[in-house]
Each structure stands twice: as structure tokens, then as C-alpha cells.
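Lab meeting prep.
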Amino acid sequence: MRILNIDWLEIYCIEQIDEPRDAEFFRKQGFEVIERDYGTPIYKEMFTICENGNPYIEIRRNPYSLKSVGGIMQDGSCHIRLCNESCYHDNPIDEMRTFILTYDFVYKSIARIDICLDFNTFDNGWTPQRFINAYMRSNISKVNQTNVSCHGSDNWDGRSFNSLKWGAVTSPISTKLYNKTLEMKQGEDKSYIRQWWQCGGDFVGMAIKPEDVTGLDMTKDVWRLEFSIKAQAQARKRKSGNEEKFTLHLFDYDTKEKLWQRFCELYEMYFDFRKKEYVYDEKKQERHLKRKYDCKRI
């Protein structure tokens, strides 16, 4: 069993200039609004709109640097983020669309979207822990994204790694594999994610019928493979070699079928691991690594 979802959804919009969409505007619409005492390096204001007592939408607005006064950002620029729990509703893209249409925001682009797949084991039978151990021992190597950071514990009887992330801080696309069960034990235990795991979320995989879905095995650790995509990714071309660029628009992610297609495209390019294989050079009487694309993909 595996469960696919959006874990972060943030878009760039233009608000109505004649009636600023500030915190007071949304209070007048009947929302509870929590304002932060300070903004961000880009925006002067930041607040969270709540629905039924839960965080619903986060808005950052009122840029410091406006084109109208010699700056770089268009007047009315703002970033709107769907809060995490809302990402686990049935149709997060539709919720975002409804919000921006209702309050007359002009959609410009996705600023960031994270797609995650939660599972217990890989399809080849490997546990994620076995995979991480093999990677950390250099038995397998990754194609693309050479920057890597890891997280784990260093004990007297050995080291244990539970999280790996590939891609630099500035990378338009990053890849992360981590123990989600452990993360929630050590940090915030998000009950809505556990409920999502229990009920099976929206099943992924054509061989699985809805009536057969029972959710993830929560007696075992649940791991997460996550791709984080920023706006700059639109300049990237697909690995297939044609001229089609990576798509980053709301309508590319608004159904589970499209989301699964995007995940598979990212998986194909950014989760490519090869078993390290060697060839022996009789002339030099030494062995050396094969070219990475000649090695077997895991």
C-alpha cells in the first residue's frame, strides 16, 4: 500500500489594488484571523486565516520593494499558502482555486508544491532503512543532485540514519526520503496524517481496488519519499530528451491521476540509484568503476 498526497501548496498571486486583502478585510468576511507581529524579508505583513478553529490559509502581502516606487515586485503581489492540514483534504487544489476566485485574487504561478508518497517498503522488497544503509556505505550511488544532507544518531554501538535529502538549498527541485513515523514522534504528532494513513487516503496504483484499501501498516514505520518543486523548476527540461519543459501550473496537479503522473516523472529523474559495479582493466592491471549509466538501476 502507498499513499500519494500534496504536503505543501503555495502560489503567487496579485490582489485587488482598490481593496487590499489585508487581515481586516478577511475579518469582515467572518473569518478568525491571526496576525504575526512581524512580516518576512519580502513582505511587511503575514497572517493566517482560520476555519472552524483550524489554520486554513496563510497570506504574505504588502511587499517592501514595489515597482511603483522603483522596486522589483508588482503592486498587489502576495503569496498564498494552503496550511498543512488543508493539504490533506480531498481536493486541496480545488480549495485553493475556490479561495482565490471568491476573493478576486489573480493567479500568476505556483511558488512551491511538495508531492509525497507514504509507504512501508519499496516494491522490490527493500525496506527504506536497508536502502539508506546501502547508500551510506557507498554500495549504491545516485544519479543527479550531488548535494546531500543526512540526519540520524551516532551511538557507541553504531550510527543510524533516518533521513536523507538531495539538492542544494537553492535547487529548484529537491528530493527527500525520511522516516515520517519517527519525525512525528519526535515533533508534532499530526493526527490528520495518521487518519489519512489509516483510511488509505486516495489509493495509488491501478492494481488496487477501492474496496481492498485498508491503509498503511501502522505497526511498522511509515516512510516518506518527497519531491519539493519551486517556481524555478519551470525552466527544467524533462529527461526524455524532447523540448517539453517541466510543468508547474495548478491544472497539472488537480487530480490524483495527474499528481501520480508528476510524481512518476520526478521519480524517474530524481530517484535514480545505481549499484556500483566495476570492470577490470587487464592492460593497467587495475579495476575501475563502470560509467554510472552502465550500472544496474536499483
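Slide two material, second protein:
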Amino acid sequence: MTLRGRTPRVPGLRSYSRRDALRIGAVTTGAAALSAACGGSGGSGKEIGIAVGNGISYAALTVIRAKGWLEQELKGRTITWRVISGGGTVRDALLSGKLHIGSSGLGPLLIGWDAGVPWKIVSSLNDMPLWLVAKDPRYRSLRDFGQGDQIAAVQPGSIQSVMLQKAAQQQLGDPHALDRNIATMAHPEALQALLGGQIAAAYTSPPFQFQAVEQGARKLVDSYQLFGRHGFNVMAATEEYAEKNPDVISAVHRTIARANDFITKQPAEAAKILSQAEQGKISAQAYERYLTHEGIEFTTTPHGILKIAAFMKEIGVIKKVPRDWRDLAFDTVKKENGS
């Protein structure tokens, strides 16, 4: 890698390494044991806490919330929605019982499963390509990044960091060559830092990667070219909570399927809902363009789990690979044609 042309280091951002990603698993194992001892994750009260993230990956959940479908399905229950960035943070909230169902990328999901976290997939949300983007013309490939060039990703062990490791393996011959370049940052802040020249590149998700390209950035890595079509985010819950609340698990899967069908068949109407949820900060026309972008599919079926897990094991991020993708799923999706 070249060391020329370093970007300014953003104050307050923490770079992380392979060791950090591995430590997530160890820390969470302790959290799982504590949760089991205290019974924290199996609540069956009237309030249902659901975690979502940033971006159109959560479009189905935005539609469900706007239309009140879960309240209709689960009468007498109160649905509380919280925006949380990063599957690892969601995982800890689920284990503590502070939340009951939450979103996770496949990277954190597999790290948790490998460490013994008792959680499984309720439903996938979508398949989406994930891009590494850079705006400075000095960055044309991974070979152009020096030691001081920061690459934003949402969290250690995130699916974006896994994709960067796969690209580094292919382009640089070492999957961990850029581990220390990665800095934690939520997707919206990463987009602004990239456009402002504070970081060298950002590995985000739709629509942030699309917005970056619209404002002069270029795509350096496309995850579909690394692994083929794959899932991005899933909704997960602990086994204890699912056992005590099968009606909630079923309703979440059912309403996600309904919302995905709505988005696919009526993207213009779905785009209006997303725009209204953002108080018009992004126009409905732009949202419709993003929702219908090539390669995006809103589906409840998990895809790509086994091949992504195999790579993570190959590079030492997890120790084992599921025998079957269904090992990580509840009955809600086991009959679907996943991978």
C-alpha cells in the first residue's frame, strides 16, 4: 500500500482491527451468560421494543410503522421503535431485554452465533449490494490507501468490514491489510465526512452509497462482485423471547412479507412513506429511484449466509460455519429457499 496523500484523521473516531472483531464475540458470550442467568431477554410484557437502523434496508419496517400493521396484528401491545446503529449494539440490547427484536447485518449475526449467543433470524429484510465509495480522485483501488487513510464502517465485525476484508484479500493478498484503516461511524455521518473530505472512503449501504456517487464519489468495491447476490440485514430475536412470544415472531415475519410485497409492487407509494418519515429531507422521487435500483430485492428469505460464514472462518473472524443456514433461523423462514 502507498503511504502518500493521507486524509485528515477525524477526531473521536476509533480505528479497529481484527482483534476488535474477535473481541465482540467474547464480550457477547459473557453477556449471553448473564442474560440467561437473569432471564433478561425473555420478556412477555405488553411492550415490544424493536430496533432499526439507517437506510432503505429498513424500508419494510418504516412502512409497517407508518401503516400500524403490527398494532393491528398484536392488539393490546405497544410497539416501541428505536434507531440503533450496528448489529453488535442491537445484539447487546436484545440480550439485556431492553429490546425484543432487532436488525443485524450478517457479519454481527454470525459472530454472535459463533460465540454462543442464543439468537436467530425472524426474517430477512432484503438483498442489497454494498459499495465502498471514495471521492478523492487519488483513490482508484485498495492499493491507493495508506496507513493514515480512514475508511468508515458502522462497527467492528459489520458486514461492510467483512466485505472490505474480502476485497483486500482479492486485491492486496491479505484480508486484514486494511483492518486498521477502518473507523467506526454511522452511515449518515460517514456520508457527510466523505463528502467533506474528512475520510478517504466509506463503506455504507443504500441510499448513502448512491447519494455519494450522485455527489461525485466513485464505487471501488461492489459486494455482489465478491459474493454474488446476498442478504444484507435480518431481523433477529433471542430463542427465549421467541419461545415465550410466538405470536410476536410470527406477526413480525408476516408484516415484513406484506411490506416487502407493497414496496415491490407499489414503489412510488412506498417512496412517499419513506420521504414523509424523513420530513421530506429526501424526496419521494429520489426514494423511488433508490428502492428500485438494480440488484435490490425486498425479501424475507435469507441469502448468502453460508458463503459469507465460510469466508469469515477462513480469515479467523469466526471459528465455525453453520451446517445449514436454517441453524440460524426460526421456523418463520425455514421453509423458504435460503442459502
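Talking points for slide two:
The first strand starts at residue 47 and ends at 52.
The two ends are 35 Å apart (CA to CA).
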